[in-house]
Amino acid sequence: MIEMSIKKLVQYGRTTGLIEAEDEIYARNQILEVLKMSEYEEPGEITDEISLEDTLNALTDYAAEQGILENNSVVYRDLFDTRLMNCLMPRPSEVVKKFHGEYEKSPEDATAYFYKLSQDSNYIRRYRIAKDIRWSVPSAYGDIDISINLSKPEKDPKAIAAAKLAKQSGYPKCLLCKENMGYAGRVNHRIIPLTINQTEWGFQYSPYVYYNEHCIVFNFQHNPMKIERATFVKLFDFIKLFPHYFIGSNADLPIVGGSILSHDHYQGGHYTFAMAKAPIERYFTIKGYEDVETGIVKWPLSVIRIRHKDEKRLIDLAEHILNCWRGYTDEDAFVFGETDGEPHNTITPIARKVGDTFELDLALRNNITTDECPLGVYHPHAQYHHIKKENIGLIEVMGLAILPARLKDELEELSKCLVEGKDVRAVAELEKHADWVDEFLPRHPELNSENVMDILKEEVGKVFVGVLEDAGVYKCTEEGRSAFAKFMETL
């Protein structure tokens, strides 16, 4: 009965605090409009527990049956249930006012309120996030986090085709622009305005939550990504507002950068990554910055950590390191600042506060390609592409693998083959894993049906560590560390 599903959705809004008692009739009528219903008969009492996922599915199924939904694929269903949830959403100004009220208590109270709202509104789909597979593996660099992301729905081929045929609009310019708020065909969200480096920025959460309170901080202007002195100022302006969060930026060059380089944005959150826990393995003193604690981090990527109680000292030193790295070439170490006028060196910066001390990690990146490595020399090499082929962005730099959803089924199939002693090469979708299996299987004579998945997870973790090592400009070898020290001495 469709009326019962409507009643459940309104009651869900009341229970979560999205709406008050005075809003109930208005919210119900908004839902009726979305469903193109003009009649409503009050159903009986709700006797079972309300499941948001089941309630939205029932309402979306009704819309599909009535022909209201033009396409019953995941993408279109998501956009439709977004319209339903919007009937329960407070106005943007109300959210901002409530956020500032909570902030007066503490920054933690403000982010806790906003994060809960982002989940209750189904912008962050809790029931999908719960399906993500996560584990950690020990390594020489500490415990590395691995995740297979199942919460980001794969786009339906019809939806992709429709998007390509749709008229390309300059409004909003991209998926990060502030104009997406309330725009038809976009996921439900609210934005908290922030002032960072004396400019207007927005704060929101990622709908896919790769880690706890995964937030996006983006420029209100549609400016391209750029790593420069102002970047470090902006990162620390954010940390001073939210000292319980970290924040970092993807690099600003293709291959080593993130997926969206056209719009200046950062990612942060309430999470401590493996890289943040990694110690400094060798300290350096930089002339003019003797008061700043500086060193190379014990980490597969090439990371310089600088620490000081005054963030302005870190901003000055970070700018100095960035400028030196941009123009640095060491042919013996296969580091080229540029070739044929194309720049290769840049930095992935990550800022945080530990106690009363500011920290800034600067991961050195280089995007040079060769005939042998057309996707990038400091990019996952071909031997690892069966697990991870995509760019290594900010989140992975810090030690959290975001692996493709296909691996869930592939690892399940692989586990069956290994237990049954089948030839992996005989299974089309598993053939790409064959060399990997040949390499690790001799190490595991103990493999059986009970432990096969644990062994596969452990070996996937080792692959990801290898991927991170590939992305390191200076390897964790005597030769690599010597070349790294050579660069540090130029500072």
Task: Write structural notes for this entry.
The chain has 491 residues and is α+β, with helices and mostly antiparallel strands. The longest helix is centred in the C-terminal third of the chain and has 20 residues, at 452-471. It contains 16 helices and 15 strands. The termini are far apart. 35% of the residues are buried. It has helices at 2-16, 24-34, 52-65, 74-86, 92-105, 107-120, 126-129, 157-165, 229-241, 274-277, 311-326, 394-397, 406-420, 434-440, 452-471, 478-490, and strands spanning 133-137, 144-148, 192-196, 199-205, 215-219, 246-248, 265-269, 280-284, 293-297, 303-308, 338-339, 342-343, 345-354, 357-366, 400-403. α1 (2-16) packs across α2 (24-34) and α9 (229-241) runs antiparallel to α11 (311-326). The chain is globular. A ten-stranded antiparallel β-sheet has the order 3-4-5-7-6-13-14-10-9-8. Strands 1-2-15 form a three-stranded mixed β-sheet. It has a two-stranded antiparallel sheet with strand order 11-12. The model has no long low-confidence stretch (mean pLDDT 92).
